[in-house]
Amino acid sequence: MSNASKSLSGLSLDMIIFGGAGDLAVRKLLPALYMAHLHGNLPRDTRIIGLGRHEFSRSDYLAFVEIQSRPFVSPDNFGADAWSGFLELLDYICIDVMKDRDFSALADRTRKEAERVFYLATAPSLFTTICNKIAASGLVDHNSRVVLEKPLGRDLSSATEINDAVGVHFKEEQIYRIDHYLGKETVQNLMVLRFGNSILEPIWRAPNISSVQITVAETVGVGSRAGFYDSAGAMRDMVQNHLLQLLCIIAMEPPVSLSPNGVRDEKLKVLRSLRRMTVADIARDTVRGRYIRGAVGSEAVKGYLEEEEVPQDSTTETFVALRAYVDTWRWAKIPFFLRTGKRMPKRSSQIVVEFTNPPFSIFPDASHGVANRLVIELQPDEAIRLQIMAKQPGSGMSMRPVTLNLDLQSAFPQRRAEAYERLLIDVIRGRLTHFMRRDELEAAWEWVEPIIDGWTRLGENPHSYAAGSWGPSAASALLARDGFVWHE
Ligand code: BG6
Q1: Beta strands in 109-152 (DSSP E)
Q2: Over the range 13-40, which residues count as b (16 or more CB within 10 Å of their CB) and which as e?
Q3: Atom in ligand 1 nearest the alpha carbon of residue 179
Q4: Distance 6 CA to ligand 1 centre (A)
Q5: Is 368 in contact with 339 (CB distance < 8 Å)?
Q6: How many CB atoms lie under 10 A from the CB of residue 164?
Q7: Which residue lies with its CA nearest to atom 5 of ligand 1?
Q8: How far is Cα 148 from Cα 127, in angstroms, rounded to an integer?
Q9: Which of 218, 347, 420 to mutate for ligand 1's pocket (most ligand atoms within 8 Å of CB)?
Q10: Omega of the bond prior to 71 within 30 degrees of 0, cis?
Q11: Which residues line ligand 1 (CB under 6 A)?
């Protein structure tokens, strides 16, 4: 979707994945690269080199990928020839990023003529060392690109430090900071909904809108990632990136073009317009939660503190709800309610734009008070629903809300590429629009960090909520104060 895009023909590509035997690589990146290969979206001359501390030979690695990654390729997309063709592209090098003095083993295996993409699917604490060592091994040139996985740091200063260190070797246009939500078809469709249609724009502002809700609910718990998750929590893991990016797309002004800077300039303005919270605001306008034992569907599940590797004295939140304000003319006084949590009753990401009631009602029926709502469902369903009032058939003038329902899956039945597949293709083609720029990332931390610090100062433990519920009751009270309810 950006202006310039590299052609694949004649391109030689070495895709080098640090953390090549890690969870992200085997579950997401390799299956996504396989799909890109299957659909002819990898350059013909591609090599994928996994790097990791495991002492695998190449054939051990292929066997590992066969066992670990293949289950993440849906049977509909599996082709024995395509899969074995894909395995041919893979190689593996055992490297200990901290211990190995240099990366000469990697330098020996990469090709001089190839464009190199370095995907850092490791802990962010290794990013600086990796960049220093690949540069010292002569592997970075003006065609190289580096992909940085989230979380990029754990606060503003660590993010700045990483950005500075990476910036010594890579120019900003060579750096791809990934937020996989930006690769989702439905999230990209938000741009088209807002800027490819003219009917919404005149009403997309104060005073026509009374509130915006953004929910990303997950049924999963922390699973095997407790070690990482406990040091992050829902605020760093989800709000700082995915939810704020969704908020940006909903709230941004029309960009001058789809060029990377066109789009990112507008998102940055939104992030900088987010009203900073004082400790009193934090106490009033944010809710932290942590799941306790309960049931998701029919499955009985443990509480967060019972999960393996979670320390008993953990104060980490698995749920956040908050009220934010974007202080601009367009959004003056309109609350944005953000909510995300693990172990919710269903997986659902949706945005609800609630419009104001008619200024005056000519109808005697008390039920006129239901507001129009635009509900944008991002996952698992892809739908846009507009709730409007209609006359209830009969002799009176009673009304009731009905829904205009656009099911995007039936409108476009074709295959949707997974977020990582789409984003990896963007990296290969050199398209930056759906990646975060340095100032955007830092602006997000500037807003989030004082909230996390405020929680520490307030010293309260997260509220408990039963796994399989919609979070602590304080999250409902947060909306009720303004006369709203969560749309569930
Ligand atoms: C990741 C978070 O970025 O997003 C995970 O680290 C979370 O904790 C995941 O589960 C959710 O992504 P998706 O695509 O399943 O909504």
Answers
A1: 115-120, 145-148
A2: bbbbbbbbbbebbbebbbbbbbbbbbee
A3: 3
A4: 29
A5: no
A6: 11
A7: 237
A8: 8
A9: 218
A10: no
A11: 218, 237
Give the model confidence (pLDDT) of 367-388 as tens digits: 556 789 999 999 998 999 999 9
| Angle of CA points 388, 389, 392, to nearest 5° | 140
Residue spans in the chain of domains classed CATH 3.30.360.10: 182-418+438-480
CA of 466 to the centre of ligand 1 (A): 21
The residue count of the chain comes to: 488
Q: In the chain, which segments carry CATH 3.40.50.720? A: 3-149
pLDDT digits (tens, 9 = 90+) for 425-479: 999 999 999 999 999 999 999 999 999 999 999 998 999 999 999 999 999 999 9
Atom of ligand 1 nearest to the CA of 184: 14
The domain over range 3-149 is classified in CATH as 3.40.630.90 = no
CA of 316 to the centre of ligand 1 (A): 17
For residue 37 the two structure tokens come to 């290969």
Q: What is the fold of 182-418+438-480?
A: Dihydrodipicolinate Reductase; domain 2 (3.30.360)
Kindly report the number of other CB atoms within 10 A of residue 410's CB atom. Answer: 9
Q: Which residues contact 402 (CB under 8 A, 6 or more apart)?
A: 387, 388, 389, 390
Radius of gyration of the chain from Cα atoms? 24
Cross-strand bridge partners of residue 407: 383
* Cα-to-centroid distance, 203 and ligand 1 (Å): 32
Q: How many beta carbons lie within 10 A of that of residue 169, not counting itself?
A: 18
Question: Quick one: 446 exposed, middle or buried, by C-beta within 10 A (0-12, 13-18, 19+)?
Answer: middle
Q: What is the pLDDT of residues 2-46, one digit of tens each?
A: 446 888 888 999 999 999 999 999 999 999 999 999 999 999 999
